[in-house]
Specification:
single chain, mainly alpha, transmembrane, membrane, transmembrane helix, Inner membrane-spanning protein YciB, cell inner membrane
């Protein structure tokens, strides 16, 4: 009789946070030190690829959201380096936010809250109504982030845009995830161990 392989344990919250945010932090840090958006973009692409490989090695899979986020980084980052035009890496968050918002909105329209497929294990006990509200909230939030990203990169310098990403969009995303917790608890969430989960930022 053959024994089944033990499933890989879920990654720790700190490891997941490092995989999600590590490439962004490297991007910000590289630009802050080198003041060269093209070198920073190349390092961002490399760090994203490493994060995807690390995700595969540590818990046996790469989530659909991480695949999509990684593909966007590699595609738009590659265009930035190939054409020597930083517009591509600046508009990448806008495209990411709008595509994710569209996917979430389609899930609501079709009656299948998309976030449940991606983050189901992170919110045990959450009711269907809770998933619907959470999906709606994130769809609206991502549209707001898309508009904000367009406003900032089109009207400020690269340094200010990166400052907004680091000190504006990223904290806002984390705070928004926390702000949803009371609603989640009212709709059946049974555990809030660790940080509240969220779709990967961009």
């Amino acid at each position: 009789m053959t024994s089944q392989a033990n499933p890989r344990p879920e990654p720790s919250p700190l490891l997941k946070l490092a995989l999600d945010l590590g490439p962004l932090i490297i991007f910000f840090g590289a630009y802050a030190i080198l003041k060269d958006v093209y070198i920073a973009t190349g390092l961002f692409m490399a760090a994203t690829a490493v994060a995807m490989i690390a995700s595969r090695l540590t818990h046996g899979r790469v989530s659909p959201m991480l695949w999509f986020s990684g593909a966007m980084v590699l595609l738009m980052g590659g265009a930035t380096l190939w054409l020597r035009d930083e517009t591509f890496i600046k508009v990448k968050p806008t495209l990411y936010y709008l595509v994710v918002a569209g996917i979430l909105a389609f899930g609501l329209w079709s009656g299948r809250p998309t976030l449940k497929l991606v983050l189901g294990a992170a919110y045990p006990g959450l009711t269907e109504r809770g998933w619907t509200l959470l999906t709606r909230n994130w769809a609206i939030f991502f549209v707001v982030l898309a508009v904000a990203n367009e406003a900032v990169w089109r009207n400020t310098t690269t340094s200010l845009w990166l400052g907004y990403k680091l000190w504006g969009a990223l904290p806002a995303t984390l705070l928004f995830a926390v702000a949803n917790v009371p609603m989640l608890l009212r709709h059946g969430l049974t555990s809030t161990a660790g940080e509240p989960d969220a779709p990967p930022s961009s």
